[in-house]
User: Fold these one by one.
Assistant:
Number 1:
Amino acid sequence: MAFNIVSFSFIFALFLLFPLSCNSSHKHDTSQKSYHRQHSSSSFDQKNSDHTKGKWILLHKSIGISAMHMQLLHNNKVVIFDRTDFGSSNLSLPQGKCRYNDEAIKVDCTAHSILYNVATNTYRPLMVQTDVWCSSGAVNSNGTLIQTGGYHDGERKIRLFSPCTDEETCDWTELQQNLTVKRWYSTDHILPDGRIMIIGGRSAYSYEFFPQNSDTNYVFHLPFLKETTDPKEENNLYPFLYLLPDGNVYIFANQRSIVLDYANNRVVREFPVIPGEKRSYPATGSSVMLPMKLVAGDFSPVVEVMVCGGANGGAFLQAAVGGFMPASRTCGRIKITDPDPIWVMEDMPSGRVMPDMLLLPTGDVILLNGASKGTAGWESAIDPVLNPVLYEPGQSDPNKRFSVLNPTSIPRMYHSSATLLPDGRILVGGSNPHIRYNFTGIKYPTELSLEAFMPPYLSPHHSHLRPSNTTVEGPISYGQNFSITFTLGVSQYTKEVMVTMIAPSFTTHSFAMNQRLLILDIVSIQQLSSFAQKITVYAPPSRNIAPPGYYMVFVVHKGVPGHSIWVKMQ
């Protein structure tokens, strides 16, 4: 069994005290350097002064594009891209590279995608050939991003981006093979056999696979997607999709959800309608599958799904005429493995449409980005929600599960994105509620900036608790034991340790596709020296629970995670 290791050391502690920050302008970047970097001190204001509520860092004032889509790769690079059909971006392609098939301008020599280096806080332009607007993606078992669909000339396209050793030249590859159906606002998910399932999209009431199992392109009709389409508004695009331990998939759209046996194209279960508002694009809420706690030999762990935010039916049409309805402030949780599941509803501290929900290494959930009124769409929302919210699903008192964290100063509205990084930070970018890039004379200008949010567990006050120098003793096989060694900053022996395993997500339009967090079963903890310990855990038992591919493994000590290490399940 192959595995990759990225060790964490004293450098990370220095980073927490003196984080990287970069500033640049919105001017068109014509630099021909492969990677773009600037150096300046990070800004710090009173909003960040309470270390118990997290800290915001401005990484770049401009990366030249608006971050509509993000995917973290196992080489600690993040692929970020926007769309191509609005004209020039603010970042030039390397000399001599241009697109000549653009529908907005005859010749486009600007980039609409970048590769961001997490370790060095630098980026370089990438070249996409066709329009990737409102597309979808998933990382396959080899770590390659399979990116599907988009708009107009991109609506049937399949694109690949592979982590590479030649950092200066690797770029997007567009396949000659096309999708069977136009896919715009669809969702992708990796399956146990390594294929990618592509489901839904505008007027696409079906699903298909990449790669296909035969020479014939098959598409499978799914009436559920048409049934959940609201007249004039839809409210069922970018459906929430989760692979289940029994190998079937859970699908949520609008307010309804089902379990689909995709191999036989058969709906095997339907769940109660979630109370309250609509939850899918453009009444955009967000969702996570809450952490699965694994026990050795148990192939059927409890599965619980959480859905938060959204908008009332009719909100999209109201926004089109300047009426912005309050966003939903409710969240619902449902244990879909229960024999008689019900939605258990809770109230967030405030209403939120277009939130991003991400799983943290601690097993908690963070909600960021979005607005308190309106819906997704051009000029369709107002009143940004600047404060992230932390949700602790294991807190027994429902009144104590939500906590409000320090706010950003940058509104992140329609077309924002966020993703978890290997060091535990959250990368945040994007926001462009306009048809084109627009920076002046408007309330919510196009955002080209890139930020990082440091959750409270990254406070330097927790340095003595933070695991470091983490390594994995391989190989790692499904259902077998493996060991992790780590050190603590001061001599301490504790059994308050948790090991979590997180799949990196493809994030766009308020949904982190393929995101899942597994809490591994601990076999033993051994003291190796005054500072070093070894923890032995059970690997996930099956591909249904952990689809093949790369995962970040975090050691969490007393609620404080160390830097993750990458492992490969195959």
Number 2:
Amino acid sequence: MATSGEAPESWYLALLGFAEHFRTSSPPKIRLCVHCLQAVFQFKPPQRIEARTHLQLGSVLYHHTKNTELARSHLEKAWFISQQIPQFEDVKFEAASLLSELYCQQNLVDSAKPLLRKAIQISQQTPYWHCRLLFQLAQLHTLEKDLVSACDLLGVGAEYTRVVGSEYTRALFLLSKGMLLLMERKLGEVHPLLTLCGTIVENWQGNPIQKESLRVFFLVLQVTHYLDAGQVKSVKPCLKQLQQCIQTISTLHDDEILPSNPADLFHWLPKEHMCVLVYLVTVMHSMQAGYLEKAQKYTDKALMQLEKLKMLDSSPILSTFQVILLEHIIMCRLVTGHKATALQEISQVCQLCAQSPRLFTNHASQLHTLLGLYCLSVNCMDNAEAQFTAALRVSDLTTHQELWAFIVTNLASVYIREGNRDQELYNLLERINPDHNFPVSSHCLRAAAFYIRGLLSFFQGRYNEAKRFLRETLKMSNAEDLNRLTACSLVLLGHIFYVLGNHRESNNMVVPAMQLASKIPDMSVQLWSSALLKDLNKACGNTIDAHEAAQMHQNFSQQLLQDHIAACSLPEHNLISWTDGPPPVGQFQAQNGPSTSLASLL
């Protein structure tokens, strides 16, 4: 026991050394580490040591045990004591940051916010902590969907870093604000902000990895902005720059040189996460453009990298990346005629969402949408309607307007195929009228809305009207290389001309539709085109060509039929009846065989 005159350092350093030894043992001996730290209080230490020890105990208990109440008690004491000690910034603000994180974990958001506000208010002389706490409170508002407050805080951060001379972190604040403005669809504010960011990023001279990571952030925002707008062709130069940028980053070595400005001590994302993100936006582009084999290739690469990263890193963003990748590849599989695989991947998304309530909240609508698309592909129309309706019910229309328009477009196609839902159909079509007040700025979705109108007019026998709508779709899809919409419009126009007896014009539409569908590859359009080619050649007396087309049609029919039977026989097929509550996992019963009609599929 130290005497009153003895310096406290010797006993304190000994206990601290033991605690650190136990914490870093393999495996860690957390109980012994906690004992050593608790022993510090036996010595009635001075306030600085007392506060720091409370912070260390709170941190160890929070990160390594489930005893959150005790962790919270220590962190609250650390925060309270450290506020009374001058020049004690690190302990004070780390305690505030960690305590607010713990409050959020316990759903005590209303305790976290005032704590962070107070810490922000008193940290203006400590640039690193002031910026970090601003980011933390902005993130908290974002998770609560209060994007306006989050944007205000990021704006405060941008101005503060300009004053303290940190252009690098100013760019991070501005880019983060740009990301939220994109989520809010405030495009008028996004454009000048991104222009300013571009200038700051180009002019900043510093650590090459930090500079390139800023450039990746900037380009990711530009690419996703174009993709949200459905501009698949216009985005190509940006996407190419982004891919070159990530290649540059992968060749650079992480220098451990610390920035001279403490406000610059931030990283947007680790290098490995950025690689996955670039794969992800490439998959999004390939999916929208209809390069489905390319989408498959990049998905495989990204998922392989994710598996490696998840072994060492429990960051929740990796699960988000994985879910978004799976969502895109599932849509590809449904188009390429691999429904059974798509269904198993939908089940995988269910499992990932079941592990994380936040992930499920953010992706429930997409999950029901994917199940709706699967139901459409196996001709379970009632289930498709129920899934799309569930997707609309759980979607957040403020931040997911494009998703809403996508769901409504697909629900309209269900009503058209059912043929007896006129009133509901007209109500839906009024809400996605491409000629008047279309609800979203997406070029791709507006082109799809014209296609749906054309499809309805075709079924109603109003062929001239159908041709007008489909020509609009073609004009829009050609302008932005939307290959799938182009193929679908061409084959439907070919069908109209065939019905009208204009065989030459029909052939001029169906042949390129078939070529494009083979390139994508889109099994349904190939099936449809080969059936039309068979009938066209028969009508024109081209027996050999008709026989060849019939053979192709037979092959596609067989492939689709086998896939249909395989998918409907999977136990996961029962997912189609889940429309409410958390995602079901491990509740599937194997079925004896398909329970759906194949007639309209073929």
Number 3:
Amino acid sequence: MVEEISDSPSTSHPNPENSESSSELDPITMRNTKPGFKRLFLSLSVLFSFILGFPLLWKSIEIYRTPLPFPQIDSFSSEIESNPLQFPCQFQAIFIGFDSRVSHGEVGSAITKKMYELNPNVSQCGHCSSYDVSVVVDSSFDCVGSGNLRGSDEDADELLKNCLGNGVDGGKVYSVVVVNGEEEEVRTVVGKYRHAWIVGKVSEEEAVWRVAEIFAKVFVNGGNEGSSIRGEFMPVGADGRIVLSFSLLNANPQDWIYDWNFREIDETLLQPVVEALHPIANITVESQVLYHTPKSSFSYWNDEHGSHIFSTKDLPFFVNSNEWHLDTSVAAGGRSKVLQLVVYIPSANECPLQLELPNGDLSKTNGFISPMWGGVVVWNPQSCKKDLESKDPVRHVISPQDLQKLFEILMGQLRQLLGLKSDNLYVGQSGTSILLGSERGFSEWELDVLSRKHICFNLLSCATTLGSLSRLVQSLPRMIIMDEIGKQVKFSLEAAKFALSNVSIGMYDASAVSSRHSRSLAEDAFFHPSIMSISYYSFEHCFAIYSPFFLPVSMHVILAALREWKRYKQENKKYLAWKTKAQVTS
């Protein structure tokens, strides 16, 4: 069989050359055909499609963030925190009836030295930048005259206003006129503008001491011992608004029912107050009459005083939160501050009701305040006897005289809530000073004190809020920042800079309005609904969400492309080795 096959003419005999070439070609190290690009092209196409699709995926999950002026925010915050805001103040002392040969500079230096001793914390925010005092020593000041200040305080106050004015270059000039006379009793009066006067027999040293105390303690500090106002005791809302809510509470309407003519009081007494405080806060007034509003604390009968007594220890329990539905304001919106001013009329079982002070005396105002909440005044009807013959409760209207007295007490409580004195006396180390009241409820120097404190507080609050917003936004890269937030931050910084520029030239009213707007805009930006309503996640959270799907697929694509590239390089290397050997052989 083998022989037949070998002899068969159809049997092909191998070519010696091909046989030699095939024997020399090693399939492991060489190949005689060029490797194809099809598999490599498909692998790289899939890989590049993933690479090109990644920006589209990143764009699809991208959030909108308007750019915020982070450097400006940091600069403003550091400026406010490192450099306490101080105000330009001018002090003028006029001595009448003293030796005119006395050196003005020495007297001014002595007053300045005493002012620093009385109030050393000049560097605190809200204080005057310096205590430079100008002195005028004259035997007879032509405009004032020695006898004109001994008459009516109101006339003397108007006289000094016409003579002294309010200073130059927009600054606030605080003046004290000292008239050295023959009166043994030294009388000190602080007017409702920006001046005071001292009349009586005083020595030069005593006059210097009294003038320095009025400057440092009254005109600068507002007559309070505390040199600063803490932020939590500033009863102005974050939006710069205050709602004065007046409530008349009838504890038991079955005994009697009292009403009031609030509109008349609003027009005559409250509107001047609202206008005076307008640079500091936007004030809204509202009123209500409530019934069945008993107090939470207990009282006891005192034969010595002939009335029911509640002490200062009972004050925390006096307000009945369950029965006193005071928070019904329709004017308070957002972050407005509501101050409750309550007139409480007790029932017949507790009438008359008096507040006993810790020293055992009865309170003259029969009221109290609660910081940041408001105040309460207990008003007892003239006749505490219930009309037993009448089945229906008797309806009364508080007389205009009683109503005016009540609102004078309430205005005193409002002054205390704002950080001022409620009475018209200042008792200092050098003596007692009379503080003249104003028809607007606040004198001009008191409004200056309030403006300085509120400007300082508003700018500090604005810097703190914007700094917190800046750190929050930078710590959450995926937080949505709308264009409105960027505009609010921008306008807040502009208002703050405008307030600072007005402070430098002594324009308190304009600076107070600008500082209030800057704080309000900063709060609006920080509490914007687009920030508060969404839960933000970090980049790590986003990676954890998408990686279980994309990571396995991406790894397979990348490994396949690397494997095909490695295979192509190996096969191409084999082809090049065969081609080189073939050229050498030929």
